[in-house]
Amino acid sequence: xxxxxxxxxxxxALVASLSSIAQDNKPVSVEFTVGGVCExxxxxxxxxxxxxxxxxxxxxxxxxxxxxxxxxxKISEDQIHKLLNEAGHDTExxxxxxxxYAKIHSCCQYREHVHDHDHDH
Length: 121
Prior knowledge:
By secondary structure, the protein is an alpha+beta fold. It has a single domain, classed as 2-Layer Sandwich (Alpha-Beta Plaits), CATH 3.30.70.100. The chain contains five helices and three strands. Strands 1-3-2 form a three-stranded antiparallel β-sheet.
């Protein structure tokens, strides 16, 4: 009877670890805010995350939301935010440096657009 319990426990542990590995490989869907104001921004944002591990990316210019599906084994959400910052775009988790932001075209400089918009109200 002891050997049966041992085999059962070993089998259960193996199934649990395989299940955990399978979950790690599952694609993750996220949506978060990214600063942008025009179609050039949209293209730059989507291009910035066109990397191994990202399965799907769509930036909605109207609500400034980036919808992503990615494989966490290949890339982390923090790495995705960093790629967007490197392209000159702020996200809800992190901000592009002034140097990174300065590299984007003047019509794309969303920080000023947001600031100007605030003065209208």
